[in-house]
Amino acid sequence: MTVTALIVAAGSGTRMGGDVPKQFRRIGGKTVLAHAFDALASHPRVTSVRVIVAPDQLELAREALAGRDCGELIVGGADRADSVRAGLDAVAEGIVLVHDAARPFCPPEVVDRLLDALRQGDGAVPVLPLADTLARGRGRLDAMVERSGMLRVQTPQAFHAEDLRYAMDEAGGAAATDESSVMVAAGLKVLTVEGDPSLEKLTTDADWRRAEALQAAQMI
Ligand code: C5P
């Protein structure tokens, strides 16, 4: 069965500052998008990698991926679900690994764990436990949230293309922060595998500094 990685890179992603979206900023001379691409493309069980980009970022993406076998770039949409849908439309069947471009490092063992777990479920996602106390509130604590059993869900996320298509149809375009959310909402069985700290999404300046340090230490 084919395994197609879909890297969603169509976000504007400038929250951390800088004049280009975070997926086109560089870590150790290589763009974040190229790091994510190379991590998946080099995996022996990944058949191909397709990249979804915003219409006004096609040129940036072509430059970032120069020399790589990425096929036609796919044009994404206004929100994440539109971008994933565009990627899914380009994939006829098989397994898809949906991955955020904003997560430059993906250890190969995580992909192995996901593909192995997918044999028993409709989907598989990497997760990490929470270390901090959890609460609701703004400015003051309104309520504490029981932490046990809570998980942080990362990407890549593995699904059978037809299951994800079904779940996204059921969601009817409702906003979701990831695809496991729509799979669970559709009543499908999404299994968890051990995630990895290096898979953290680049969101804050501190994330960025951590990613640069990881790369400089050749830990990825
Ligand atoms: O903004 P956030 O960090 O949650 O985005 C997660 C991933 O989804 C990023 O890799 C971003 O490029 C992608 N995305 C997308 N299309 C959008 C919005 C986000 O491909 N319209």
Describe the structure.
The chain is of the alpha/beta class and 220 residues long. It has a single domain, classed as Alpha-Beta Complex (Spore Coat Polysaccharide Biosynthesis Protein SpsA, Chain A). Helix content is 30%, strand content 24%. The protein contains seven helices and twelve strands. It has helices spanning 32-41, 58-64, 80-89, 108-117, 161-171, 179-185, 205-216, and strands at residues 3-9, 26-27, 30-31, 48-53, 74-75, 95-100, 123-129, 134-137, 141-145, 151-153, 157-160, 190-194. The strands form three sheets. Strands 1, 4, 5, 6, 7, 10, 11 and 12 form an eight-stranded mixed beta sheet that branches. The radius of gyration is 17 Å and the shape is globular. The protein starts with a strand and ends with a helix. The mean pLDDT is 94. Cytidine-5'-monophosphate (C5P) binds at residues 8-11, 13, 23, 52, 76-80, 83, 100-102, 201.
